[in-house]
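cron nightly-structures :: item 1 of 1
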Amino acid sequence: MDKTPAEGDGHPWRADGLLAVRAGEGDEEAFEALVRRHGPVLLQLATRLLGSRTEAEDAVQDSFIAAWRKLPEFRRDAAFRTWMYRIVTNRCLNALRARRPVTGLESVPEPQAPEHAFSPARAAESHAAVEALSVAMAGLSPEQRACWVLRELHGLPNETIAETVGISQQAVRARVFRARRYLTEAMGAWR
């Protein structure tokens, strides 16, 4: 009995391949299935790269629109997920490069602390650490940030990151190394 992508066969990439073929032929339901399957992780990636949920939602939506248009050109030898990672990462890198210089911290009003059910001191410390990491990540180049997020937060191998970002594996290793070193120094007070 033939299994459809909806039934699954234990291999999501096979289902993705079938869905991508169908979507490339104009099947909107197949494309919707791909969006449902990959949208959450791509939104997480974009949010981590851009630091803004709103910008991330726009980047992912624009990426899926671009993917829909380019599906007939999609190389079937690549995984759909890797292809979408590449589209989203490139869209985020372009957005990061287009940003104006970051405003100094002294000119930004301090946000109100949310109410927490646990210790206010712990909540303040946790919030401060997240803010410090956010500020530290803003000091990375867009390419370093993309490589670090894809490696450290999404667990992708260097080969996939190289393909996604469009650089060599050696360049990926160098950017991840530099990003780790920079973030370690920048977050030194939090160790």
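cron nightly-structures :: done
The mean pLDDT is 80.
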